[in-house]
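Long-time lurker, first post. I've been practising inverse folding by hand and with some scripts of my own, and I keep getting stuck on stretches where the structure tokens seem ambiguous. Below is the full token string for one chain I'm working on. Before anyone asks, I'm not after the true native sequence, just a reasonable design that respects the backbone. If someone could post their per-position residues I'd love to compare against what I wrote down in my notebook.
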């Protein structure tokens, strides 16, 4: 009878980990629709300023908000990285456990478990694995996985309905 698979490792949630996570899990948005919210906010703000007797502060607020939104699209990677690096989880040690039941992560700031039954899709990326589940997406880097752990995830990817 084969032994049940279990793998555990620890690593630091540092800047390089977050950069790899962003690069591997980002979905490409067509450039024309990426700025759509900014354009709508700008148009709404300008309409309030030019065509109504409404308080001009509201119009200027929307124009400023459009600028912030445009900057967040333009500097999306830096924006996301900055938010991660100021979180409680940043620069903490994370313990990753992969077993027959699922994947669990524990640190001072993070306690999460994803069951294999809940995982809807497993994708192999250039540098790791992207797991889609009802709560969102989770990225596992190959640099923190052993070869056997990678093979185990690959076997689960085959058995996961896609």
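-- Answer (accepted) --
I ran through it position by position. Result:
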């Amino acid at each position: 009878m084969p032994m049940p698979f279990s793998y555990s490792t620890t690593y630091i949630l540092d800047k390089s980990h977050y950069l790899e996570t962003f690069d591997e899990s980002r979905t490409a948005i067509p450039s024309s629709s990426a700025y759509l919210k900014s354009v709508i906010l700008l148009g709404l703000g300008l309409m309030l300023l030019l065509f109504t007797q409404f308080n001009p502060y509201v119009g200027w607020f929307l124009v400023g908000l459009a600028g912030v939104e445009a900057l967040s699209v333009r500097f999306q990677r830096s924006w996301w990285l900055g938010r991660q690096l100021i979180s409680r989880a940043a620069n903490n040690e994370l313990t990753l456990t992969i077993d027959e039941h699922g994947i669990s992560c524990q640190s001072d700031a993070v306690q999460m478990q994803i069951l294999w039954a809940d995982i809807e899709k497993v994708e192999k990326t250039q540098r790791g694995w992207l797991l889609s589940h009802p709560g969102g997406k989770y990225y596992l880097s190959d640099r923190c996985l052993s070869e056997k752990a990678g093979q185990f995830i690959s076997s689960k990817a085959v058995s996961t309905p896609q």
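A couple of notes from the structure itself: The mean pLDDT is 90. The helical segments are 15-25, 31-34, 36-51, 56-74, 76-85, 147-159. Happy to go over any region you disagree with.
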